[in-house]
Design brief:
It contains 6 helices and 5 strands, in the order ααααββββαβα. Helix 1 runs antiparallel to helix 2. It folds into 2 domains: 2-90; 106-170, SH3 type barrels. The chain has a 5-stranded antiparallel beta sheet. The protein starts with a helix and ends with a helix. The protein has helices at residues 2-37, 42-67, 73-90, 92-107, 147-152, 161-170; strands at residues 115-118, 121-128, 132-137, 142-146, 155-157. By secondary structure, it is α+β, with helices and mostly antiparallel strands.
C-alpha cells in the first residue's frame, strides 16, 4: 500500500514537471520568435529564455516541496506573495521597461535601422533590447533611452511608413 502511494506521488511529480516544462518551452519559443522578428540581439533573447526558465524552476521547486509535505500551501503562498511584492517594488522601473519592450517588439513598430524622432531627438535605431533602445544621432552621438520613455512617446518612425501602413490596411 505504501509503495503504491510513493509511486503515485513520483508519477504525479514527473507528470507535472513534464507538462509544465512543455508549456514553458512553448512560451519561450513564441517570445523568442517575436524577439527574432524584431531583430533583438542574441544576448537579449538568451536573457529572456533564462529568465523564464528560472521562474519555472522556482515554481516547480515550491510545488515539489509542497507535494512532499515539507511546506504547507498557506506558507508557500504567503512566502511567494511577500517575495513577489519585494521583487516588484525593487524592480518596478526595470519591470516597466521590460513590459514596454515586449509591447514595442510584439507590435513590430520598431526595427534595427529605423529612423525615428522622439521629443527633440532624431536618430537611427542601432540596438533594441527588452529594457532600452539605442539611437545614433546625425552627429554620431549614441542616445540610450528606456523603453518606457519611448513607449509613452509620442515618437515618429520615418522608415516604417510602408510596413506599418500595410499592417494597418490588413486589419480593415
Amino acid at each position: 500500500m505504501l509503495n503504491a502511494s510513493i509511486f503515485t506521488l513520483i508519477g504525479g511529480l514527473f507528470a507535472f514537471v513534464g507538462v509544465s516544462l512543455l508549456v514553458v518551452l512553448i512560451i519561450i519559443r513564441a517570445l523568442s520568435n517575436i524577439a527574432k522578428r524584431s531583430q533583438l540581439t542574441r544576448e537579449s533573447i538568451r536573457d529572456l529564455q533564462r529568465g523564464i526558465l528560472a521562474i519555472w524552476v522556482a515554481l516547480v521547486l515550491v510545488w515539489i516541496l509542497q507535494a512532499l509535505g515539507f511546506t504547507s500551501l498557506f506558507s508557500s503562498v504567503t512566502l511567494s506573495g511577500v517575495v513577489g511584492i519585494g521583487i516588484t517594488l525593487a524592480l518596478q522601473s526595470t519591470l516597466g521597461n521590460l513590459l514596454t519592450g515586449i509591447w514595442l517588439l510584439s507590435d513590430n513598430v520598431l526595427r534595427l535601422g529605423d529612423n525615428i524622432r522622439i521629443m527633440s531627438l532624431e536618430g537611427t535605431v542601432i540596438k533594441l533590447s527588452f529594457r532600452s533602445t539605442w539611437l545614433k544621432t546625425s552627429d554620431g552621438s549614441i542616445v540610450v533611452m528606456s523603453n518606457s520613455t519611448l513607449y509613452n512617446g509620442p515618437f515618429t518612425n520615418f522608415t516604417a511608413k510602408e510596413r506599418l501602413s500595410k499592417k494597418f490596411e490588413d486589419k480593415k
